[in-house]
Records
---
Amino acid sequence: MKISSFIELAKFGIKTVLLRKKDPILGTVILTDKCNLKCKHCSVNNITAVVYPYDQIKKEMRQLYDMGVRILFFCGGETFLWRDGQKTLKDLVTEAKEMGFLIVNVVTNGTYPIDLPEADLILLSLDGDREHHNAVRGDTYDTIMENIKNATSDNICFYMAVNQINKSAIRDVCLTARDTKNVRAVSFNFHTPYPDTRQLALSKEEKKECCDVIIQMMKENVPVFNLKSAFPYLINNSFPTPCHQCLVIENGKISVCGRCIDVEGLCDECGYFFVAEYTLLFRGNIKIINEMLRTYLKYI
Ligand SMILES: C[S@@+](CC[C@H](N)C(=O)[O-])C[C@H]1O[C@@H](n2cnc3c(N)ncnc32)[C@H](O)[C@@H]1O
Ligand code: SF4
Ligand code: SF4
């Protein structure tokens, strides 16, 4: 991260903590809900299967920027499916940077060739070793590994959603992150139990066991892009929700925190690590602030 970006984000953080402000800093643009996969834990794919046009996406990026967002994520559906005429995801990332976003990240299932050095991080979903990953995501593991090997940049961070199917595979994903070329780190979420996937939710005890494994992995020098000070809050679902500093825009509709905000009662069972990390950060939790500074400067 550039020093100037770091200073701008730090200033935002200080203002938010001291003045208890609720201004947004992190935004996500949903490019489409169309997806080539149908993962067992996912409730947001192929509901409309519309790929939103370039002009609309550009307008939404501008809208978030004007609201103060400086960390931008592109998400889906599958982001690498997005195109409009000659425009591709690469153009969107480049234009987001030109617009002034300080960090631009993309979330992908990794099943398409990866040529996106313009992104700060490519969050690539890997949900276990071959057996567990394929149990969640269909027969895609080998294709993904081949795409990672052939990627044109080393800005990949694994993104694992831990649930009842793959809870025993955290160690495998960690070691793969540590030992695979082009992969910088791994970041976790716990399953967030939408009404149609409640059976995949982890109990408090299971979350604790998962966090213990992640902490052990951190000790073994696995690059984990999460904050261990947030783990107790994630285990107990005791972090504040929603995250007021996070916005999502999909087809013109802006939601605070996540699209899931409309699902009754879901925030009480939220498994998204970024929500715990950001809400605790902006409440001025000193341990989180310290750890966040060290972690972000290391991986971005
Ligand atoms: C919805 S996907 C969209 C991007 C891309 N298709 C992918 O799979 O990475 C974004 C991330 O959300 C995760 N995810 C989906 N449903 C989830 C749930 N109920 N709880 C936690 N994470 C979930 C996926 O595993 C993926 O890492
Ligand atoms: S690849 Fe992503 S959007 Fe598609 S079904 Fe899986 S988690 Fe959902
Ligand atoms: S806190 Fe609520 S809105 Fe935010 S990600 Fe979690 S479930 Fe979704």
Note: Residues 3-19 form the longest helix (17 residues).
---
Amino acid sequence: MTTKTIPGAARRKTAELRETRIRTLGRLPGKAVSFRVDEVRLPDGRKAVRGYMEHAGAVAVLPVLDDGRIVFVRQHRYPVGRDTLEIPAGKLNGPGDDPAARARAELGEETGCTARRLTRLLSFWPSTAFSTEILHIYLARGLREGVPCPDEDEFVETVILGFREAWALVRSGRIKDAKTVIALQAWKIKELENR
Ligand SMILES: [Mg+2]
């Protein structure tokens, strides 16, 4: 990997990029997500404030039926005020929660599907600027359809789409959910690699 130094930072060493916590200014604890504000020391010695979300991590599953169609869930997302089309997903219950087991559980609860094969596609940080969240994406194949049993506060509807149809919705902006877009791309790239 090559690094390019930006003007003005020319005399700074890369080892000095780190920001360190001086103190926590506030914390709003939640069930799986907490909000926190820290005062930090910048590499040049100045101080700054960093507000961010402490997140236990999450999993998402791309469920692909034997005929190649994908099982999505439609649900209302309060922060964006819209009904979204997403792949099934859920937060981890803590550091001891096994991501693959959580992925199978979310798949079952939200779509009713059980999977014979679950393979990890990738893990990514959705928002490094303001969240500690890591999200693991799995591909589920060998699906058997069943009856969904969502959480009490979860209202979801199953929508089955072919890849082309789904990708057209990404292009048109109807599907904007990051993990869903990334999962669709990662699956197609994996198929290219396996050719
Ligand atoms: Mg869920």
Note: Residues 58-193 form a domain with the Nucleoside Triphosphate Pyrophosphohydrolase fold (CATH 3.90.79.10).
